[in-house]
Amino acid sequence: MARCAELVRVIKADLLEADVNKDGKVDAEELKIIMKKHSAAFTDREILHLADLFYMGKGGASVSHEDFLRGVAHIMNNSSNDAREDDVEAANATAHRRTEQHNHPLGLGTCQTEFIHGKPRGVYTPEELDVKLTHVEPKTLTDRAAYAATKVVRFGFDTVSMWNFGDITKDKVLRRVIFLETVAAIPGFVAAMVRHFKSLRTFSRDGGMLQMFLDEANNERMHLLTFIRLREASTLMRVFVLLSQTFVGAGFLVLYVISPAFCHRFVGYVEEEACHTYTMIIDAVEGAEEGTEMATWRTERAPGIARAYWRLGEEGTVLDMLYAIRADEAEHRDVNHVCSGLRDGQQNPLYNPQAEFDQMLMKYVRQVMGREAVVVEPESVNERGESSSNTNRGEKVSA
């Protein structure tokens, strides 16, 4: 009970200190003041993002201090019922897949999913760069058709490009990836375009999907703009790209209108193959003997556009860039496999602003209380933000 009261007192003090207009409420700007006080737990980017989520979700409105405290209690009760910190973090990692939030005191709604989705391409963590080569087994007829089509396309392109003949060389790698990235940027854009038109035609929301697919298309385009700095495209390559865009773009558009599930499953399988290909390239670079052509990519600086986009640092190498691109492809693989199973009109299961806000607010609570936090029942906070005298309202949990 003492810990419960202490948690309420500390958070209440933060709220009062940040309450610049003395209205007993907290808005997005005041939330930034609170989070900046705990800069050890938050980066500047996280603070700005958290404030944006709050502002967009509440439509610019503020919430009372009491509701904010109840929101903290709600988050902790949902996220910290387990005594082990790794279990809590595992629950938070899957929270973004929940598509509904019930009776949340800080309920942010879902309006902002229509316009604020977009992943900043910062530095990947070592765990994210350690991409696992996964495979989704085909189950339905649509899955099997998509998998068969992927294998046919892969075999045909490997044969024409002579990929499986001879050693992997720089020229062979760049010729392959430059062409493939011009095609890889098509599906995401087509998917976004179809969903955009449907949203206009049906006067309805998209569920936050088209923004995600536009980001995917632009990400693939950035791969191309990076590789083209390592080698200029020949006239013949430009002709092939023009032809492929014509046929692939038109074909994928027709297929997406007919069966989005098939298209996303197909792209998921194509991205599985991309992960395999980039793994082969990375292994070839890392395993190359010193002084050979491929070995130079271990120390050669990545193009400036790549160092900026993936934040590789001033000395970021081509090998670092390849790891980041493979991580991108793994993300596209997982996203498209998930999207293949969505029902028409379903909310984006991969982007939930409420869950993201809740997770970041949990970091604030952990920073306030150190290594231990207290679960506070919503009912244990009275109108003055103080804990009630019911000693059964709170229980200690290791955060």
Give a quick rundown of the structure.
This protein is mainly alpha-helical and 399 residues long. Helix content is 60%, strand content 4%.
List the helices and strands and how they pair.
Blueprint lengths: L1 H17 L6 E2 L1 H10 L6 H14 L5 E2 H15 L5 H11 L30 H4 L11 H21 L8 H33 L7 H18 L7 H24 L1 H28 L16 H6 L8 H23 L12 H17 L2 E5 L17 E5 L1
Antiparallel strand pairs: 1-2, 3-4
Helix pairs in contact: 1-2, 2-3, 3-14, 4-14, 7-11, 8-9, 8-10, 10-11, 11-13
In the CATH hierarchy, the third-tier topology of the largest domain is known as Ferritin
Question: Helix proportion of residues, in percent?
Answer: 55-70%
Number of strands: 4
Name the CATH homologous superfamily of the largest domain.
Answer: Alternative oxidase
- SS summary, helix count: 14
Instruction: State the CATH architecture of the largest domain.
Output: Up-down Bundle
Strand sequence of the main sheet, in spatial order? Answer: 1-2
Structural class: mainly alpha
Largest sheet: 2 strands, antiparallel
Strand and helix order:
HEHHEHHHHHHHHHHHEE
- Pick out the low-confidence regions: 82-101, 371-399
Mean pLDDT: 82
The coarse overall form would be globular
